[in-house]
Design brief:
Helices cover 52% and strands 9% of the residues. By secondary structure, the chain is of the alpha+beta class.
Length: 476
């Protein structure tokens, strides 16, 4: 399947009365809900409607009109408009209420969001988690040794599951740690529980009907059981962290996110126990798939464009010579080709399928005013594909060697990581993971497989997850 051709021509928008826009048939009581039922069906349905009715179109869900668009400029401005200029909307909020996950930074709005985000960013700061980079390198070495080394010069290996396992191990280690007997005995179960929660939240969004989360279905039972296990684990690790803080006193250094949040249990901006539990689960669930989708996309694009593999490897080797060891992972612009490959994967294969956005203040796009009467569903993944508006819209990491292009890329990454002040607080960690894995992988190996006109196919839930694909691996 070939990549879509870039859309470079600005269209005139027609955001009128949502009820008058084209869209699927609306039925009494259920609105447009015949298109719902599962995360994949929901997003596929919206994409099919976009292909049928054009951009924008409207749907009626839960008694409310939504305008649906994949216009890249609208998507970017709508997300930059948050949090004070826009919210997630009732469908998003009701989903997290049903999942009993309200209260985390991912869901909070207004002043409460600002308070929680500032606290979480400080907990994620380099001083609180000084060992994070070494932990990432340790996981990279382990995964390459176990996943890639046995496959050298053999049959093609499946990449999507390996990317997910890498990202899952990093997030587990960051959030909970990796040396405790408790975790080493239950690492696979934690990974599976996080996947179960992610899938369950996707189902709730795709089935916005009253009481659906209370039905005694097998998937609901699995969801609530997974949530209970992760809450219990968080509580146990909070107790362990408190004991260690008390034992070590001022010499205590936080090694995990749970420990860093426990340090902030004094003063007006302190985390409560319940907040620590919810934030830990949110990071665990939300931190896996965005990174793994981008990693899988980057490996696919590099295998498709082999000349970039050697150029990036040489950039990494030169960086190691200058550093006297492994490359530094923090900072932006030090390794433009390596970072460019990541930005290109984010641009071409955006992990976020969609966002809800309710505008509280109007904003303008190409002469059209979009205000509170236009609750939006932003088809971010589809918008990213249509936004390949650079001259020659294909894979080109070198474009970010230009400082202006790099600055634009850093600023305009709203579709993978949210946008504006509401940019995902874990964005920098995700970039650290990607830089570490790709730099070490390209030093050791070369990847082969897809033809020049092939593209990844996706299944859609809360994240656009690549369907399984294989690459061949040989030694560099």
């Amino acid at each position: 399947m070939a990549l879509p051709q870039p859309t470079t021509q600005a269209r005139h928008l027609h955001f009128g009365d949502p009820a008058q826009l084209p869209g699927p048939k609306v039925y009494p009581l259920i609105g447009s809900a015949l298109g719902l039922g599962s995360p994949r069906r929901f997003i596929d349905w919206l994409h099919a409607c976009h292909d049928t009715y054009g951009d924008p179109f409207s749907v009626r869900l839960q008694g409310r009109w939504y305008v649906v668009t994949a216009d890249p400029e609208v998507c970017q401005l709508a997300m930059l408009h948050r949090p004070n200029g826009g919210s997630r909307g009732p469908m998003g909020k009701q989903t997290f209420h049903k999942a009993d996950l309200l209260g985390s930074v991912f869901v909070a709005e207004g002043e409460e969001w600002s308070r929680r985000r500032a606290m979480l960013v400080r907990a994620l700061g380099a001083q609180s988690l000084s060992a994070a980079e070494q932990m990432v390198w340790d996981v990279v070495d382990s995964r390459l040794r176990n996943d890639m080394e046995p496959a050298v010069a053999g049959e093609a290996i499946e990449i999507t599951a390996r990317a997910k396992r890498f990202s899952g191990e990093v997030i587990q280690s960051l959030t909970f740690g990796d040396s405790r007997e408790l975790l080493s005995a239950h690492r696979d179960a934690i990974y599976e529980d996080a996947e179960t929660l992610m899938a369950g939240i996707g189902r709730l969004i795709a089935t916005p009907l009253p009481g659906v989360h209370l039905l005694p279905t097998r998937s609901n039972r699995q969801f609530w059981a997974a949530r209970r296990r992760l809450i219990a684990l968080s509580r146990q690790l909070v107790a362990e962290a408190r004991a260690r803080i008390q034992r070590e006193g001022e010499s205590f250094v936080a090694r995990t996110l749970v420990e860093a949040m426990c340090l902030r249990q004094a003063g007006e901006d302190a985390f409560t126990d319940e907040e620590i539990e919810r934030e830990a689960i949110e990071v665990l669930v939300a931190g896996q798939d965005t990174t793994s989708t981008t990693l899988a996309g980057a490996l696919f694009l590099l295998a498709q464009n082999p000349r970039w593999q050697e150029r990036i490897a040489e950039e990494v080797r030169e960086g190691e010579r200058q550093a006297g060891g492994r490359i530094p992972l923090s900072g932006i612009g030090q390794f433009p080709l390596l970072e460019g490959a990541i930005y290109e994967a984010l641009r071409i294969y955006t992990p976020a399928p969609f966002f809800f956005s309710d505008g509280r203040e109007p904003f303008e796009v190409r002469g059209e005013t979009i205000g509170a009467e236009h609750p939006l569903i932003l088809l971010a993944h589809k918008a990213a594909l249509s936004a390949m508006a650079h001259p020659g819209g294909g894979f080109d990491p070198a474009r970010y060697a230009d400082k202006a292009e790099l600055a634009k890329a850093v600023k305009a990454m709203p579709m993978p990581f949210g946008g504006g002040p509401r940019m995902c607080p874990g964005r920098n960690l995700s970039l650290v993971e990607l830089k570490a894995y790709l730099s070490e992988a390209l030093k050791r190996y070369r990847f082969e497989g897809p033809g020049p006109d092939e593209a990844i196919r996706f299944d859609f839930g809360l994240v656009a997850m690549p369907r399984p694909f294989g690459l061949r691996v040989r030694r560099a």
